[in-house]
Structures are given as structure tokens and as C-alpha cells.
Design a protein that fits this description.
The complex is a heterodimer of chains A (457) and B (426). Chain A is mainly alpha-helical. Chain A has a domain of 240 residues. In chain A, 67% of the residues lie in helices and 0% in strands. Chain A has 21 helices and no strands. Chain A is globular, with a radius of gyration of 24 Å. The two termini of chain A are 35 Å apart. Chain B folds into two domains: 100 residues, no CATH class; 281 residues, ABC transporter involved in vitamin B12 uptake, BtuC. Helix content of chain B is 66%, strand content 3%. The two termini of chain B are 27 Å apart. The radius of gyration of chain B is 23 Å and the shape is globular. Chain B is mostly helical. The N terminus of chain B is likely disordered. Classes of the chains: A mainly alpha (457), B mainly alpha (426).
């Protein structure tokens, strides 16, 4: 953040085109020192051409500038404020105090504050740390598990989102918009579950096969839009949207077939996955966190390596930046498009495996995939389509989900508020110019205040 | 289709040789016809397949022996395919294709209806047509919203959210005021609210339009779901009991057999939807507004050079789209059901499919919406007669058809050239 270099000074780097990013960066620069540095590649590792201002000065400068960190933080604040307004206007008791706000403003303010602060306190207690459980542990009233329970819930919800977020982010970097993570995760969940209860395999191997089956399912579902894009020029956004629904209907059909449906049930639920194919729990049986989160970290590292260190990653980014130039340079654009979508499908499929092999569910139901594919889009955007950013964003979304559950049961605030918060955060992130205008931020040096992935149908 | 035209991505060759698109379609149709004549013919029973003209099993009906019907209509499909394969004048292509496809569907129906349990081997045409239109209605409104938006160059993936917000505010304000008309206006404003967000962020802040659409859908689901649980579930009588439009019978037209009871005894939304298709079609292709809209969607720089206010046209069209979709949402809550969480349930995306399948054209969108509505209605019907065809596969049909259309197997579809590209003046 304190590096005046344009590349690292604008971490909300656009996925699609780094070349354009550099151009924009130069265009938006307010400091001459960057503009006078024409050769970026030379500037990156090399020493700064001008004497550095003091670190403290830089910190203060950047604190109120529209850099990624500030924009993200303020987007969170804005979303929380809008969420609070929604809570207040939907509570008839609190709303009634506003009818006499001119005569007794304290009533309105106090009741609003109680409502909102309790709700958000529960959000925090349900996702990160509950002081009561901690003091209960010190007093011996409850075990240490209760202290870690919120974190466990957060990690459980975050794990599949990491995978779907990575799936969307990877495709973004290659210039493709993968809206189909939902469908890929759906096929992944189907394959993983089928492998989980149909194949009689020894423990260990069974788990491995089930996880890989999920990845394979996702890969198949990613391959279809990939090949259609590469061979027929069909837009992946349209095809992935359509394939999401095809996958969902296939799932609802499959569940009630003989051999899949739980023979003891009449409703739409499949047999349960064998215990030998379930991801082991990390902190004992009472806490839901399972090995999926470790796989997620591993996947993040793998995607980061793929993108930044491998030949394929270079080709992928080149195609994303400028397909024409990439083709001129000898990169097969069609092959890259197919590979991007297959890899994106594998990641989303792994996210699907997490949903049925982890502790969230152990059998197929029509809603077993929840919304992880669509949430993955938001996670990818919030994570600025960078692997480690995606990991952090998924943790935040997992925390919102976990805390939302407590908020619903303790404060009676519908879980839907979490959806609203998530959508709002991403809206504000996607339009940094708006956040900047609201908070009167200075333009950061080299900050590009637009996300223009736009390329139409 | 692809605005990222990469030359090594397949483009339609100029010289197609013998295998023109028409011949390929003809070959496909021929295969379909053979399949239906042989397979459907073999599976159909000797029962009569009755297509009743009134609501019940008795009454006048068109009847045909199941096996004979399945084979006969299959042969018609084969003939249509053969005609295309032999080569017909270009203007005959669509009519012949239409005949072939309809015959294929009829062959399928002959099999299905005749294979139904005795006593249920009839298909009430009035019900089917009425159901088709009812199910197609939100798709028509949604697809028209898409046409308005995308013809001016703004991708509208937020149709789902616009429909949902329209349905919600229609129900909420209709209930509070007790007036259908207030509900209708509120629904239009609700849809326009989502549109306004889309317009401001897409046009003013240059946010990716597809991203914005997806996020707005989630926002609409969240906000309506949240307020539904907080307000409507706690006090349904006050907040979720909107009055409903009654059916309006159109004199004379309502007495036409089959079509009369199916189409001309509907509610205001049915007439409004069909009227809007006509108005938007004429508006788009015959008026100054339409020319400007299309020019902004195809080539905004040229339009700007000629003095068209590109951004103003886009704002106006996106807002209009919201109004149309909002009214479409109200066709649920002010005519059929009370509001429930996420009640649109993906219809907005089928509307998007209809828009693409109908090639960004109001009339095409109408036909696509009706086709999708028919598939939906057929799934219900086949479920009722215990068909062997799983309803889920019929439900997939719109999506699969769209994928085929986009992949160029059913002819090329092409979006407006500037669709999804923000315009920066300067």
C-alpha cells in the first residue's frame, strides 16, 4: 500500500487486462514520480527514482485515499449502515417511536440503537468470538468447544465459498465470466455423493475418490461452455446461466430415482454418504469444521501458483488481457478457453464435494448446494479476483453466514439480511467511485476507480 | 454473438458449399421425424388420442388413433425435413421448419395422450392454451424488459430482480392501499427502482453490467425476502393480501371456440402483455425513438456524432425496462398468488433465455416465451397423466434450446453490437 509503484499501488487490479491497467494507472496518476517512469518492468524490483517520503507520512496519505483497503472497509461500513436502516424500517415497534421523534428524539434513537446493536453483536458473537462462552469456559460452565464454535461455523461456511470464488476468479483472469459455478458445483455434488454411497471402497481411498469425482463432475460441466465458446463462439455467460438450471433440474430428477433415493424416505432425499467418504472433522465431533477448509487453503495456493508461476497461468492471463495479441504471440486461444473453463469447473466441483462430504449435509437434497455458486461470484469480486483475496473474502462471507444464523435465532433478524449485506458490499466495491464520492476520499495515486470487465454478450 | 471476436473462434464461413444451414436443419428434422414415426409410433397405443375443445373429457374433440397419429405426424416431419434437404427458397425456410416442428410435437402428443390411462386419454386444448399464456406472461414482460434494455446497449441480467421487486411492491402497496391500481403503479416503480440502480451503476459508474445484474438479483432476493419475513409473515392481513384484478371478458372475441375462453377471458396483464409486444415492436422499428434506441445499441459513437444523447437514451430505456418488468412481476401478486419469498424462482432467467432465443426482437421474444410457457404447461399436463417423461426434462427444455440457439445450431443469434459496453463520451 505504501509502495508508489503503480502496479502494487492499485491492488484492485482489473483481472481482464493488465496492460490496460498499467495505462489507466499512468493516466490516473496524480504524482509525477510515477508518470515519469515509463518502463514499468524496470521500476518494479528496482529502487525508487525519487527519495521516499517518511513512512508515517505515506501511511496518513494513504489512509484516506481511495485505495483497495479503504474502499473495501468503507464498503463494509456502508453496507452495515444500509442494513441497519432496513432493520429499523421493518420493525413496527421501533418505527412507531419515529412518529413523535420531534418531541422525544431519545426514544427513537435508543430503541433503534438497541435493535441494531443487538443484531450486529449477535452477528459478531455467532461468527468470531462470544465473550459469554469464554467466561463460561473460565468458570468451567462449558467446555473449550463453545469458545471455538463461532470460528468453527465460520470456517465451515467459508470452505465451499473459497472453491467457488476461486473458480469464478480464475475464469475472470482468463477473460471469461463463469456464472456457472452453481451448476458446476451441482454436478460436482451429485458425482461426489454418488461415489460416496455407491462405491464400496476402503476408508481413505473412498474419500479421495469421492472428492475427485466431484472435481470430475465440475470439470464436465465447465467443459461444455468452454468448448461451445471456443468452437462456436457462444457466449459463456449465457451458456453457464442456462447450464445452472439444467444441472438443478437434473439433480431434482436424480434424487428420486431408484438406487439413489433413501429407501426409507418418501421425500426427495438420497441415501447418505458412507462415513468412509466423509471429510474428517478437525476439532472433534461437536464442532462442524472439517478438513475442507484445509483443502481450500491448498487450492488457493495452487491457483495462486497456477496463475502467477506456471506457463498455463501466463497464457491464461495473456488471453484474458488481449486475445488477439495472445493469438499473435502463438498462444492457442481456443485451447486456453477450454482449459480455463475446465479448471474453473474442477474448482467449483470441489466446492460441491465440500457440501456433501463435509458436515453441512451428508445426502443429496434439492437444496444441497445452497447458493455457493452465486455467492462465489460475489466472493471473487470482493477478493479482487486474486487467490488470497478470494480466501479472505470467503472467510468474511462465511462469517456473515455463521453470524447470520445466530442473529436470526437470537434477535429474530431474518437471515436474508446477510444476503442484502453481501450484495451491498459487492455493489459498493464494484463502484469505488461511488464510495469515493460519499466519503470525499482523495484519489489514490494510481488508483483506477473503475472496474470495467465489461465486454458485453 | 461474441463481441470478443477472435478469428480462430469459429465464424460462419462465407461459402458454405452444399451443407448450408437450411440443409443441416433439414437433416436434423428428417432424423427427428424418423425417430418420432418409428419410436413414438411403436410406443403409442391403439387408444384414441383426444384433443378436446372444451374443458372436460366429453364435448367436442379432435380424435385420432394414437399409433396412426404418431406415425402420420412423424411422416409429416420427415417430409418437411426432406423438403429442406432438397432445397427450398429462402423465404419458405421458416414456414417449412415450423410445420416440421409442430408435426413433431403432435406426434409426441399422440403417443403420450394415447398411452395415458383409459379415461384420461384426452388433452383439454383450452386449458393447455390458457396455461401456456399464463405461464408465459412473466416471461413476455421480462423478455420485453430485456429488449428495451439491451437494444440500447445495456445488458439486463437483472430481469429476475426487477420481476421480484415488482411482485413484492405490488403486493405490499396493493395490500396497504387496498387498490389494485396503486399496487400496479407501485409494482412499476419497484421494477424501475432496480433498473435505476442498474442504470446508475452501469452508465454512471461503469460497473460491469453482467456483474451488476447478478448482484442486483441477489439484492432483490435479499431485500424482498427480509421484508417479507419481517412484515408479511407477521401481519399477512395487512401487508400481504393485495386485491386482485378480475378477469375481463372481451365481447364477441370471447365466443370464438377454443381461443375465446383461453385468451379473451383473461386479466389485464394478458392484454397488456400482448399489447406491449405490439407497441414495442412498432416503436422499435417504426419510430424515431426506436431508431435512436437501436443506433445507440449498435454504434453509440455514430449516434452521438449525429446528436443523439446516448446516455439519456440508455437511462430512459433501462428505466422503461424496469417499469415493464415490474408490471410483469405484479402479474403474479395482483392476479394469481400472494407474495412468497423468491417467488419468481428463475423465471427472470428463462425470460433472458426467451430474449436471446427470440433474437433481441419483441415478436421473437413473444414466440420464444410462448414456446417456453408451452413446455412448462406440458410438463404439468404430462405429470397429471402419469407420463413416463420426467417433468424435469421438459423443464430443462428452454435452457437447452437456448444453448443450442447460441451455439449456432438453430441459426445464428447476434446481440446488439454495443450491448454491454459502457459508453464514455469524449
Amino acid at each position: 500500500m505504501t509502495n508508489p509503484n503503480p502496479q502494487s499501488g492499485s491492488p484492485d487490479k482489473e483481472p481482464a487486462s493488465e496492460a490496460q491497467a498499467a495505462q489507466n494507472a499512468l493516466g490516473n496518476t496524480e504524482r509525477a514520480e510515477v508518470a515519469t517512469e515509463p518502463d514499468r518492468s524496470a521500476a518494479k524490483p528496482g529502487p525508487e527514482p525519487e527519495p521516499k517520503p517518511s513512512l508515517g507520512r505515506l501511511f496518513l496519505d494513504n489512509l484516506w485515499a481511495a485505495n483497495t483497503f479503504t474502499v473495501t472497509l468503507l464498503s463494509l461500513v456502508l453496507a452495515i449502515v444500509v442494513g441497519a436502516v432496513l432493520m429499523i424500517i421493518s420493525d413496527p415497534d421501533v418505527l412507531s417511536t419515529y412518529s413523535y421523534i420531534t418531541s422525544r428524539p431519545s426514544d427513537a434513537i435508543n430503541s433503534s440503537w438497541t435493535l441494531v446493536s443487538e443484531a450486529y453483536a449477535n452477528l459478531f458473537k455467532g461468527s468470531i468470538f462470544d465473550p459469554e462462552a469464554f467466561s463460561g469456559w473460565l468458570d468451567g460452565a462449558n467446555g473449550w468447544q463453545a469458545v471455538l464454535a463461532p470460528i468453527s461455523e465460520t470456517l465451515t461456511y467459508a470452505a465451499p465459498l473459497v472453491f467457488t470464488g476461486l473458480s469464478v476468479a480464475l475464469a475472470f483472469r482468463g477473460g471469461l465470466f463463469n456464472i456457472g459455478a452453481q451448476g458446476q458445483a451441482t454436478i460436482g455434488v451429485i458425482m461426489a455423493a454418488l461415489a460416496g454411497f455407491l462405491l464400496p471402497l476402503p476408508p481413505g481411498l473412498h474419500l479421495l475418490v469421492a472428492v475427485l469425482a466431484g472435481a470430475l463432475g465440475g470439470a464436465i460441466w465447465g467443459f461444455i461452455p468452454g468448448i461451445l465458446k471456443a468452437r462456436a463462439g457462444a457466449h459463456e455467460v449465457i451458456n453457464t446461466i442456462m447450464l445452472n438450471y439444467v444441472a438443478t433440474y437434473f439433480l431434482t430428477w436424480l434424487i428420486v430415482q431408484n438406487g439413489v433415493q433413501d429407501p426409507n424416505r418418501t421425500d426427495a432425499i438420497s441415501k447418505a454418504v458412507d462415513t468412509s467418504a466423509q471429510l474428517p472433522r478437525l476439532l472433534g465431533d461437536n464442532l462442524r469444521v472439517h478438513a475442507g477448509i484445509l483443502l481450500a487453503v491448498l487450492a488457493t495456493w495452487a491457483v495462486a501458483w497456477l496463475l502467477n508461476r506456471s506457463t498455463l497461468g501466463f497464457e491464461l492471463r495473456a488471453v484474458g488481457a488481449n486475445p488477439d495479441a495472445a493469438r499473435t504471440a502463438g498462444i492457442s486461444v481456443t485451447r486456453t478457453y477450454i482449459l480455463i473453463m475446465v479448471f474453473a469447473g474442477i474448482l467449483a466441483g470441489l466446492g460441491g464435494s465440500n457440501m456433501v462430504l463435509g458436515s453441512t449435509a451428508s445426502a443429496l437434497t434439492p437444496l444441497v448446494v445452497a447458493q455457493i455458486g452465486f455467492d462465489g461470484i460475489l466472493v471473487a469480486l470482493l477478493g479482487r479476483v486474486k487467490p488470497w483475496g478470494v480466501l479472505l473474502a470467503a472467510l468474511l462471507f462465511g462469517a456473515l453466514q455463521a453470524g447470520g444464523n445466530r442473529m436470526q435465532s437470537y434477535s429474530g433478524i431474518s437471515l436474508e439480511l446477510v444476503t442484502v449485506l453481501q450484495a451491498l458490499i459487492v455493489i459498493f466495491i464494484a463502484a469505488p467511485a461511488l464510495v469515493k464520492a460519499i466519503f470525499q476520499l482523495r484519489a489514490a495515486r494510481a488508483a483506477r476507480l473503475q472496474t470495467s470487465l465489461a465486454k458485453g454478450w | 454473438m461474441s463481441t470478443m471476436a477472435v478469428p480462430d473462434i469459429a465464424v460462419a464461413p462465407v461459402d458454405e458449399g452444399f451443407w448450408t444451414r437450411s440443409r443441416k436443419v433439414g437433416l436434423t428434422l428428417l432424423a427427428l421425424g424418423l425417430l418420432s414415426a418409428v419410436l413414438f409410433g411403436a410406443l403409442a397405443t391403439d387408444q384414441q388420442a383426444r384433443f378436446t375443445l372444451s374443458d372436460d373429457a366429453a364435448g367436442a374433440a379432435l380424435e385420432i388413433n394414437g399409433t396412426i397419429g404418431a406415425i402420420l405426424f412423424g411422416i409429416i416431419t420427415v417430409a418437411a425435413g426432406a423438403a429442406l434437404l432438397a432445397g427450398v427458397p429462402k423465404r419458405w425456410f421458416l414456414p417449412v421448419l415450423g410445420v416440421g416442428l409442430v408435426a413433431f410435437v403432435l406426434s409426441f402428443l399422440c403417443w403420450q395422450v394415447s398411452a395415458a390411462p383409459t379415461g384420461q386419454n384426452f388433452m383439454p386444448l383450452v386449458n393447455i392454451i390458457r396455461g401456456t399464456f399464463i405461464l408465459a406472461l412473466p416471461l413476455i414482460f421480462g423478455a420485453l424488459a430485456g429488449v428495451l434494455c439491451e437494444r440500447s446497449g445495456v445488458v439486463n441480467v437483472a430481469i429476475e430482480g426487477q420481476l421480484l421487486m415488482g411482485a413484492f411492491s405490488g403486493a405490499l402497496f396493493g395490500s396497504i392501499s387496498g387498490s389494485v391500481w396503486v399496487g400496479l403503479v407501485a409494482a412499476a416503480i419497484g421494477g424501475a427502482f432496480i433498473s435505476l440502480l442498474l442504470a446508475v451503476f452501469a452508465i454512471r459508474y461503469l460497473v460491469d453490467q453482467v456483474v451488476m445484474g447478478i448482484v442486483l438479483n441477489l439484492l432483490a432476493v435479499g431485500v424482498t425476502g427480509f421484508l417479507y419475513e419481517r412484515l408479511m409473515q407477521t401481519d399477512a392481513a395487512k401487508y400481504n393480501s393485495a386485491p386482485r384484478f378480475s378477469n375481463w371478458e372481451i365481447p364477441l372475441l370471447k365466443d370464438i371456440p377454443v381461443l375465446g375462453p383461453a385468451l379473451f377471458r383473461g386479466n389485464i396483464f394478458l392484454y397488456l402483455g400482448l399489447l406491449l409486444v405490439l407497441v414495442i415492436h412498432i416503436g422499435l422499428f417504426r419510430t424515431r425513438w426506436g431508431l435512436r434506441t437501436r443506433s445507440v445499441g449498435e454504434h453509440p459513437i455514430a449516434a452521438d456524432t449525429l446528436g443523439v444523447k446516448v446516455l439519456r437514451v440508455r437511462y430512459r430505456n433501462v428505466l422503461l425496462a424496469g417499469v415493464v418488468a415490474g408490471i410483469g412481476g405484479a402479474s403474479y401478486t395482483l392476479a394469481l398468488y400472494s407474495f412468497t419469498k423468491n417467488m419468481i424462482g428463475g423465471k427472470g432467467f428463462i425470460a433472458l433465455a426467451a430474449l436471446i432465443f427470440g433474437r433481441w426482437n419483441p415478436t421473437g421474444a413473444l414466440l420464444a416465451a410462448l414456446f417456453f410457457g408451452f413446455a412448462d404447461q406440458l410438463a404439468t399436463y404430462l405429470g397429471a397423466i402419469n407420463s413416463v417423461i420426467p417433468s424435469q426434462f421438459l423443464a430443462m427444455l428452454p435452457y437447452l434450446a437456448t444453448i443450442l440457439a447460441v451455439a449456432g445450431l438453430v441459426g445464428r443469434v447476434r446481440a446488439p453490437a454495443a450491448d454491454g459496453k459502457p459508453y464514455i463520451k469524449g
